[in-house]
TrEMBL record:
Pfam families: Lipase_GDSL. Belongs to the 'GDSL' lipolytic enzyme family. The keyword Signal applies. InterPro entries: GDSL, GDSL_lipolytic_enzyme, SGNH_hydro_sf, SGNH_plant_lipase-like. This is GDSL esterase/lipase. Keywords: Signal. One of its GO terms (molecular function) is hydrolase activity, acting on ester bonds.
Length: 362
């Protein structure tokens, strides 16, 4: 199976390179896309660790590779895959822990992300997944490999010109603070946000010290509106949870302040924050405005997998019926499972980020 999957990937990559060459798209001077984060960007690392937080089974991946799952938590590609492709790099960013890849595959992009993790170590421990500190260790290992492969000087340049993309924080709120008693008994929400911000601050300084100069962090979307939160909203069944949306907005504005501070403080650093909160609200409020006239969103409230109310990871499995897919590879659902956007929603998010925050790197 890994052979088939890699083979298809190569064919796709080759086709893309041909397409790019034939249409003379200017290749950006982003040399690679290096990814840190959670399930929104994990391209398969959790397949190779001991956790129940996996998605390497059907129907995950339903709409790519002939339905062979890759460990991505959606029906297809992730925002970072689309972004990488837009920079003229690989349309599929390989997972660092996948033994079928080598440094040759990782030169143009690598993913250290892990589903169910957060900025907070306590969040990573809930499902025994990869904390951000370990993602940083993997990044250091990657740099050693890259130096062996490209030579010291060229590897440094690759790192300097690589886009370091970070998508993290959702689980600190939905899986940790607003669900479990540990952090919510230690911190008020505002203290917890400050605690998370101090970890983000440290993280950016660490990768800066290691040579990173181009960074993009994505804000939290309106996470109080994911199907899972609507389902467990006992105060107003089916509605968005405003306290969680507020936490997402507050965390995002603190991140905006932090990004401004870091840009001013660290010479040569270009860090941007892509704010997708408003886009998320707009998709939920005006679904018919997204996806073109014949295949716009029709459901932005429940997931495509199973009942769409609660199923995620092992609960969304080969026994779960899924929504019909009339317009392959897109569909009419904004959410694939009760937590994760569909490939189509992800492609809209990626397009938005490329037009806004990431445009400085194009
Ligand atoms: C998280 O855990 C790592 C590894 O044990 C540790 O180095 C780090 O300081 C911890 N981070 C926080 C913010 O506690």
């Amino acid at each position: 199976m890994p052979f088939v999957y890699k083979h298809k990937q190569c064919v796709l990559l080759f086709t893309l390179i041909l397409l790019l060459q034939s249409t003379q798209i200017t290749r950006a001077d982003v040399t690679a896309v290096i990814v840190f984060g959670d399930s929104t960007v994990d391209s398969g690392n959790n397949d190779f660790i001991k956790t129940i937080g996996k998605s390497n089974f059907r129907p995950y991946g339903r709409d790519i590779y002939g339905g062979i799952p890759t460990g991505r938590f959606s029906n297809g590609r992730l925002p970072t895959d689309f972004i990488s492709e837009a920079f003229g790099l690989s349309p599929f960013i390989p997972a660092f822990l996948d033994p079928s890849y080598t440094i040759k595959d990782f030169v143009l992009g690598v993913c250290f992300a892990s589903a169910f993790t957060g900025w907070d170590n306590v969040t990573a421990d809930i499902f025994n997944v990869i904390p951000i500190s370990t993602q940083l260790e993997y990044y250091k290992q990657y740099q050693v490999m890259l130096k062996e492969y490209q030579g010291e000087a060229r590897a440094k340049e690759t790192i300097r010109q690589a886009l370091h993309a970070v998508s993290l924080g959702t689980n600190d709120f939905i899986e940790n603070y607003f669900l479990l008693p540990v952090r919510s008994s230690q911190f008020t929400i505002s203290e917890y946000i400050d605690f998370l911000i101090s970890i983000v601050d440290n993280f950016v300084r660490e990768i800066y010290k290691l040579g990173a100069r181009k960074m993009g962090i994505v804000s939290l979307p309106p996470i109080g509106c994911i199907p899972f939160e609507r389902t467990i909203n006992l105060a107003a069944l089916g509605q968005c949870r405003e306290e969680i949306n507020k936490a997402a907005r507050d965390f995002t504005s603190k991140q905006e302040q932090l990004v401004a501070k870091l840009n001013a403080e660290l010479p040569g650093l270009k860090i941007v924050l892509g704010n997708i909160y408003g886009l998320g609200i707009d998709i939920i409020s005006n679904p018919s405005a997204y996806g073109g006239p014949r295949s716009c969103f029709e459901n932005v409230v429940t997931g495509c997998c199973g009942t769409g109310l609660l199923e995620v990871s092992i609960l969304c499995n080969s026994l779960s019926p899924t929504c019909p897919n009339a317009h392959k590879p897109t569909d009419k659902y904004a959410f694939w499972d009760s937590v994760h956007p569909s490939q189509k929603a992800y492609s809209i998010v990626a397009g938005y980020l490329l037009k806004t925050a990431l445009s400085v790197f194009l």
